[in-house]
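hey can u check if this looks right to u? its 334 residues, i copy pasted from the old doc so theres a chance i mangled smth
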Amino acid sequence: MISPDSDRNRLFRHDGRIAINTIRAAFAGWNDRLVAVAVLIVTLAMIKSWLAERPWTIAAWSAVGAGLLLGTSAERLVAKRLAFHGFDGLLAVDALRPATRRRYIAAWHGIALALLATVLLVVAPSLLIVGCASYLAGKLLAALMSGVTVPKRLADRVGSARVIRAWLRHGQAGALVASTLLVVLLLERSLAPNALIAILGIETTPLTLALTSVDSDVVRFMATTGYGPWRIVGYHGKSMAYFLALAVPGCWLIAGSVAAAAVTAVSGAVLLLLALRVLAYCLHGKRFADLIVSIFAGLLLFLAYFLPIALPFLAVAILWQLQHRARTKTWLLV
């Protein structure tokens, strides 16, 4: 016989079991678990080292930013999950009950806050209060913003945005973006060399990110219809090939080899991010895949700052591990 308390918490237990099974499936093998533990230890060590070298004010503002981001993200995720349960879930009756909703929200935020507190105690105990308070502020901000409705005219543009993102994956889009960058570079040739390279890198970053947008549904569809992981990466990176073919030699002719190297470095980093996202989408749902990519990207950034010589080796190891597992998902419907 199920106790009343257990019955009141079955919505949380239902999603908790889903989360546990998802983590078990993601790290099914011992090698996956060892890699995850190693990545976690190295990431925490790098964060601790970075915070130790910064003034307390900068470290505190970093904790504030991280806490706000985590709080708002957790609140939005919990709200979306409750909305799903209320409309399409098996436990819609529980999801529509105010008392159960409050317990569900409190339980998940309690887990997230406990994890954040644990990380802060490991990397910087002095930031515990700041980070936890920022998390609660982010949660409150997201809860207040949840009542804000999107104007219909803005919502109608979502379909147009998807069409634009699809066009940006074509080769002519890469050629057009490269031509635009070269025209702007011609206008900026009068700048000092260091300023020119810095501005060129800043301009290249958003342009290349726009060319490498990834739709998780498209990736999963291509995987289930027989496309291998690297073929999917090639499909999404087609416009970048055109961009590099025009932008790198053009920058070399206009501003020299250093400018061409800057564009190549930024483009290489964006292509690495593209490959990580595609391979992760082959393996997991969008939210969990984005979390994994964020962790790997943060680890690579810290490694590039502290130990650049080891960066390519770790990047290759991460890509090999992801593609090795992504190959097994080809032709699979689930």
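The CA atoms of residues 46 and 240 lie 32 Å apart.
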